[in-house]
Design brief:
Pfam families: SIMPL (PF04402). By secondary structure, the chain is of the alpha+beta class. It has two domains: 88 residues, Protein of unknown function (DUF541), domain 1 (Translation Initiation Factor IF3, 2-Layer Sandwich); 100 residues, 2-Layer Sandwich (Alpha-Beta Plaits), CATH 3.30.70. The chain is built from five helices and seven strands. Strands 3-4-2-5 form a four-stranded antiparallel sheet. Strands 1-7-6 form a three-stranded antiparallel sheet. α2 runs antiparallel to α3. It is elongated, with a radius of gyration of 30 Å. The two termini are 45 Å apart.
């Protein structure tokens, strides 16, 4: 009796395992969706940096420059909610050869400028007021989430069209999607705009247009597995 029960159990397990590993005819394809939009805002990360031998004096000078920078930003009518202090530091730097300690103070402000017509004036003014390092300048869209959604839908449509192309010559049809993987990455183009070049233009009183906004290409990439019918 025990042998019979064991035999039936093994048969049931074998049948179950056979059912589990049964393969479903399917096709795996990649799809891509692209949406091109003109940026309507720019995010600027700018830093005031001061170095000297006296920590207190270095911090004081750096604070004074940043105070002038913040007042200038307000004068440009940038809303308070659109700029903030991102980082503040004061660090000792020891020179082992000269056996001397100097101090480095820096403070970073992040600005979201939604009126791109003010870009050149703002950038030149920041340098004039004491900004000596631009860490990042990124052109963005305020409707990024909306455009990402559009790109994802286009990517799924592209994947299905590819699958239909492949199976059309086989006399089969594309069925339901059984797996979807999102492989998307968002890329923001950045301008080559050196701080020193801005300072030279500002000192010379130049009013040349330096901004070429271009377009942001928002891309979505997906991998989809469809059942074949």
């Amino acid at each position: 009796m025990k042998k019979l029960v064991l035999f039936l159990t093994i048969m049931f397990m074998t049948m179950s395992y056979g059912q589990e590993i049964k393969q479903i005819p399917q096709i795996n394809v990649n799809g891509e969706g692209k949406v091109k939009v003109t940026p309507d805002q720019v995010c600027i990360s700018a830093t005031v940096e001061t170095t000297g031998s006296n920590a207190k004096e270095v911090k004081k000078q750096n604070d004074e420059k940043m105070d002038a920078v913040l007042k200038f930003i307000k004068k440009m009518n940038v809303p308070t909610a659109d700029f903030r202090t991102k980082q503040v530091s004061l660090n000792p730097i020891f020179d082992y050869e000269k056996k001397k300690t100097t101090y480095n103070a820096n403070q970073t402000v992040e600005i979201v400028l939604k009126d791109l017509s003010k870009y050149d004036e703002l950038m030149e003014g920041l340098v004039q007021q004491g900004i000596n390092r631009l860490d990042n300048v990124t052109f963005e869209s305020s409707k990024l989430a909306q455009y990402q959604s559009e790109a994802r839908k286009l990517a799924i449509k592209d994947a299905k069209l590819k699958a239909e192309d492949y199976v059309s010559v086989l006399g089969q049809k594309v069925g339901k999607a059984i797996t979807i993987s999102d492989n998307s990455q968002v890329y923001h183009p950045q301008p080559l705009y050196a701080a020193m070049r801005m300072k030279e233009s500002a000192d010379a009183g130049a009013s040349n247009e330096t901004l070429a906004i271009g377009e942001i290409e928002i891309t979505a990439n997906v991998s989809v597995s469809f059942v074949l019918e």
